[in-house]
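Feature request disguised as a bug report, sorry. It would help if multi-protein outputs had a clear separator. Right now it looks like this:
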Amino acid sequence: MNKLSNENDFLKNSDFLICNVLLYFGHTLEEVDRSDVSRCIFSIKRKNDTDEILRKFHEGSLLVEPKRFQAISKEIKSRIYN
């Protein structure tokens, strides 16, 4: 995994769950690229803690509040389909 080199970098990913987790922890979804009909590419503004959050996500050690997590999920889906 690449380390954060510049706070203006963006993480581009098609994983809905990773997008949801990063937004839950205060990241910003800058763009949803829907040009490929089979998947969306999320552009998320990187922060200093992005790599740490992703590491904890893959370890399975993150905890979230379910209602807030679901609300963020609905918000992302709204950006995908509207």
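(second protein starts here, but nothing in the output says so)
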Amino acid sequence: MGPGLPGIGAVLSTASDLLLLVLVFLVAFLFFGAIPGIGAFTVRARWRRFRARIVESSLQRFVEYGDLSAGAEGRGEDGYVGSFRAFGSLEAMQGRHRIWINTGRFTVGADLEGVQVYLLPSFSAPVSASVVERLEKSVPDEEPSMVSWDRIYSLPAGTQVFVEGALFSEDGQAVFRTRPRNPLLVVIYDGERRTILQRAIWSGRQKNEYWNQFTLAALLTGAFLLVLLAYLFLRVRGSGLPALVALSLAAFPIAALLPPGVLLYFLYRHFWKQARLLRAERDLLRLPLRYFDGAAQPPPDPRAREVSVRLPTGERYVRTREFRWLIDGALVIRGARLIERASRRGQPCWLFGALDDKAKLPSLRTPEDPMAELVLVLGDPEDLAGKCSRTARVHELVSAGLFFAAVSLNLFLLLTLWHLVIR
């Protein structure tokens, strides 16, 4: 029995260390991975909903005076008229939650109690017409601000506003209000209204979803708990692998910023930014296709070389691969910049624009609808968008690998350092 006791003690010690290591890794995973990860998925889903909502809003009709002057038989019991959109400038604020917007022809109201208001970033550089689109040079690298109207106390007259949602008639006046499951979309912007959809699609995504409203508290709590566990382990056991691992993992929030792993960290940031730009280019490439995918009209034959549909403004919008058109207006030229060398081989270009019925020769012009585009896509939009999506996914995987390599390298070096210091 005597010679066997040390062996049993060693087994018990190993099992105890294993349980303590499991505890350390669970704490690290919960506070450094799971909680920020849940926040990351929440943030990404929130911005995805914003982009989908503003694209859907471009398919709604603009509110017209005739919509309010029509008979009451077309309205609901509460005065509901339908879903509309409106551009305008702030004319006045009434009370705490109602604003009045001048559309240029008449004034509409909007009740904003509890509504989330989006503020688009201003242009950081002028945009040139009739050149290949480069929004990364003109739109600042930041997401729109999202603020509850309850936290906005004043706005200057003339502020440009876009609003979309349920419209009601109140004594002959048009008022936008939130309905159940149909909140108002309110965007405050500067610059031309023709640019807000592209700017919202381009910048409406988090720069780094891992850093969200939960991250700072989770990182601080996790680091504190790991230091506390390391202290308890050292006090009770004197030393051991669990204490060293806990001390090393406590440095996770800054581990990637330490040399030598910081070099891999900068590579991670480069690939992550490229993935975000690719996702933005993917969404822009698909943007003019939204009119041809709607359920309100039969879907066109995807093999057809030329297809036309009706815009909400009544204009006929053409998608064509036939270059027999005169162009009237500032043509936007759009491509997939990050994959364009590979994508240009044998790719037909697609032209989108409003049909000019008054022209003697076949002409495409800039649509009257400011959310529709006169655009030339350098390739098949859906094919290019798919390539952008796949390339973005590869860049995200590479960036994740680089980040974990940077963290793992530095944590291993910290573990070695703690082993030399604590013996």
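Even a blank line would do. Unrelated, but nice: The two ends are 32 Å apart (CA to CA).
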